[in-house]
Design a protein that fits this description.
single chain, 375 residues, alpha/beta, TIM Barrel, eight-stranded parallel beta barrel, 13% strand, NADP_OxRdtase_dom, AKR, oxidoreductase activity, Aldo_keto_red family protein
Length: 375
Amino acid sequence: MCLTYATAEATYNFAKRFAHYKDFYARHNGLIFSKLGFGTFKKEPYKEENYIFDYKEALKTAIKSGVNVIDTAINYRYQQSEREIGEVLEELFARDEVKREELIICSKGGFVPLDFPFPANPYEWISEHIIQKGLATTQDIELDQHCMTPAFLKDSLDRSLSNLHVECLDIYFLHNPETQLTRIGYNHFLKKLEEIFASFEEHVREGKIKSYGIAVWNAFTYEEGNSEYINLEDVYDVACLVGGSNHHFKYIQLPFNIAKTNAYSVPNQKMRDGNYYTPLQVAHKLGLGVMSSSSLLQMHLFQKPFKPEVGYLLDSKMELQSDVQLALQFVRSTRGIITSLFSSSKSEHVSSNLSIASIPATNSAKYNLLFKVER
């Protein structure tokens, strides 16, 4: 039988093929996740050079080298990132080089995707593909770029499945919902989440997704009172309200890197017990898996060399060769994160990044010392 989603047995067998790797796999919700996941975000997709390159060879290298987590979004490079992933998956499945059930495939919906190549008039595209189809009204679309009506998200999900050449996504994220939070207010936001999560639960029943989550930028790490702050327990309560104890809200995604550590280090999330916890602590208490994005901060981490102390604490035997590898060693060593995303269009960079699998994760004592040294 050909399964259409990741399974516990298949992801475990995938990881066993790389048994020589050290501390490179983590289990959550029964599935085995590679500690590094392949991401496909590229900022400024309207620039010509971002139409030219593709991720296909880099993605093949990643999968063949032990990465089984693939993350994308329908709006990345105007659907082109998803389509390239779909071409790679179709090729690798046909050659039996990897099975669908060995891979954890994630995408996101919420931003207006437009299309590749970029439409001559994006406003006409929005009118034709969203407004005239009754997926949303102009009032539902924030800044001409973000929409989260259930009908629009269903259409986005169906497009993603088609682009990726799969029947089911393992994780489907609501993408940066805080984009609309300031305008609609927090209470209205939670009511909209009820509608969205109810539709996501229906998509689970339809077999289009196995689980869902929320992918944010700063919403889970801002201080209380910020206009884009979201309380994670409030979101969890919405999932329980619409899905009961067997709801499928299982994951969150947020940025985390050696310069942006709030998710691990700042207790900004208040829970019902009256205490404040870090987002990672809250996720653990609620049983949510955490995927981290922006592991390299779009390469902005490397404007100056890391301090020698950082290298020693992360790699005391000096086996790694670059600050990029050290930055990835940092995120993969973070307790409470099941996978950390990196993006690359070059196979040689993928291979270099994955060399961190040859050494163990940094232990907790040395990891926590990093917060006491200048980075």
